[in-house]
Design a protein that fits this description.
There is one protein chain. Helix content is 35%, strand content 10%. It has a 3-stranded antiparallel sheet, with no helix packed on it. A hairpin with a 4-residue loop joins β2 and β3. The two termini are 27 Å apart.
């Protein structure tokens, strides 16, 4: 599988969304981000073996930066926790287009 699939499968990353490859590759979306050419190659490589020691080390940081840009676009709804108290409330989904939260239909 790809680096992105591997990274999104790590426990704790389940609420990160998959940023489309074409969005990542678009140079406009990379403007102002640090130049991580080698890192970008690892992220975009369709085959990734996590047992190999060939990762650059900045993949998580760079994916996080492009992920932030992607979710701030009006195309994406975001998971939010209405409370920081454990089991007090369920995750809701925030829609930036309507500026409102909805119950998470996946649960």
């Amino acid at each position: 599988s790809s680096w992105i699939s591997w990274f999104l499968g790590i426990k704790g990353n389940e609420y990160l969304c998959r940023v489309p490859i074409d969005y990542i590759q678009e140079t406009f979306n990379q403007m102002g981000l640090e130049d991580f050419t080698d890192t970008l190659q690892v992220i975009l490589n369709p085959v990734f073996d996590s047992s190999l020691d060939w990762v650059v080390g900045d993949e998580e940081k760079w994916y996080g930066m492009i992920h932030d840009r992607f979710i701030m676009s009006e195309r994406k709804a975001l998971p939010v926790g209405p409370s920081d108290v454990w089991v007090k409330s369920n995750v809701k989904i925030f829609c930036p287009r309507c500026n409102d939260t909805q119950p998470d239909q996946r649960h």
